[in-house]
Request: fold
Amino acid sequence: MACGGGDDSTPVNDTAVAVVAPPDSMPVTPAPISTWESDLGEALVIAGAAPDEAVIVLPDTIGLRANAGAPVLDALSGRELVLYSRGRRIGAARVGAVAGAAEVGASCVQWPTTRLSLDAAAGSAPGWTIALDASRASLLPADSLEAFSAADSSRLTAEIARIASALPGDVDPDFRGLPFVVRTIHRIELPSGSRALVAEVVRQVNQEANPKREQLLLIAEGDSTRRSALDAAAWWHRTSGMEEALETLSFVAAISIGSSHTPAIVLARESSRGTAFTLLERTGVRQWSERWTSAIGGC
Reply:
């Protein structure tokens, strides 16, 4: 039954339209895997501006805007820590209340701080650099260039300069032919009985209009039973550029972590933006790898 006639009716598309059922659940992006060494504890505790002040460098900044770091800070409150300065024990302290949560900016973090209740030894001793939970980590024996004998100082300085000159990546022509100056050496006793040297080596272009600088931080290992066994660097990091903008690495502490007594080195990475911290772990003979690096603190 039709109203009207002719062939002017609209053609009908009789092709079935496929209906896609919605997925049972939306795909979930997995959270980034943390590289923090959990055997070291909840956080890295570093000396603050005053002897009784500690800076708490949290392992991760993910979700800190939602105060995700609060459980870590709560766990540290009241904890007893051992204070160390480079190669020696300074004393003990108890963690007090933590001043606020971490403040996260676009490219850096303002870490929370806490006041410490120092014992008599820590209160009368020179400043400390790192605090550790004695049940989780301890300091590895270490000494610095100033404590070496004159013979050891001359020999090790020459060996470190030789190793630095043989490293690959020397591509900046401004530093070609300039001497390598060894600024610091820290000698670490490893649990295996061998030794590791952490050295800072620099070259400088002394031009008033173009004061460029190159820094090498390197780790070399040697057998403590032989006078000279530093054949090559086990790990190194090279930076170069204008002095005021150069990122530099410096030695903070050498530690032994967990029941496995894994050797590790804590480094400070300082730049015009602030300070970050890096944890290097020894994975084998003359083998070190970067395990974790914090966000930059200091906005």
About this structure: The two ends are 81 Å apart (CA to CA). Residues 1-6, 24-32, 224-228 have pLDDT under 50 and may be disordered. The first strand starts at residue 44 and ends at 47. Residues 247 and 271 are 4 Å apart (CA to CA).
